[in-house]
Amino acid sequence: MPIVFSSGNDPVAAGLVESLARPGGNATGTHSFGLDVIPKRLELLREILPQPGLIAFLVGPQTPSTPKQIRRVEAAAQAVAQPILVLHGRNEEEIEKAFATMAERQVRGLLYAGSEYFQVIADKLVALAARHRIPACYEWREFVAAGGLMTYSTSRREVMRLAGDYAGRILKGAAPADLPVIQSTRFELVINLETAKALGLTIPHTVLLRTDEVLE
Predict the structure, then answer these.
(1) How many Cβ atoms from other residues are within 10 Å of residue 56's Cβ?
(2) SS3 for 185?
(3) N- or C-end of the chain: fewer Cβ atoms within 10 A?
(4) Domain harbouring 144, CATH code
(5) Which residues contact 38 (CB under 8 A, 6 or more apart)?
(6) Which of 179, 182, 189 is nearest to 209 (CA)?
(7) Of 118, 111, 53, whose CA–CA distance to 81 is shortest?
(8) Residue 23: band (very low, low, confident or very high) from pLDDT cuts 50, 70, 90
(9) Spatial distance between the Cα atoms of 88 and 90, rounded to a whole number of angstroms
(10) pTM for the whole structure
């Protein structure tokens, strides 16, 4: 059965394909650089914080990419001497405890790891960040549309468009093995100015100039 995937991890390292140019099996799709954007999210979050301090990295239920995400954010933080606090939110009780810890440790900013579970409970995560008045950077634009502060990621709409195109080509007879994995290179920075105002944040002009979409 042909498979069209959308992967934030390296599809070769994950064993989905033999190589990006020649998938070699019954699967192909898109690579959206889920791990590679973590350092950029950290950089942008640091830019908008009114004062430096501890930044939390909240990870969801354990997935194959969780250890890689933690290593990536810790390496990025170490490179700029940024204190980082890794917390786990595998269920709602743990998430509540994580936010209590953030309050106790006076966390200045929050970076969310990529997690399907977080997408399911997006409204709760946005509400908790607002209640604790913690500027947060999320995985996808949908979090910002729901009231989150900001996100930097590949364009999910573009990734789905590319995957849909491949699905159509396969239905017309193309073999997945002959369709190279597409590396989506369209990135988007989205900021919710209403949320920034509620947090008492002034987004630097240098950041606004790079913003692809501003929600008000």
Answers:
(1) 22
(2) coil
(3) N
(4) 3.40.50.2300
(5) 69, 72, 73, 76, 111
(6) 189
(7) 53
(8) very high
(9) 6
(10) 0.87
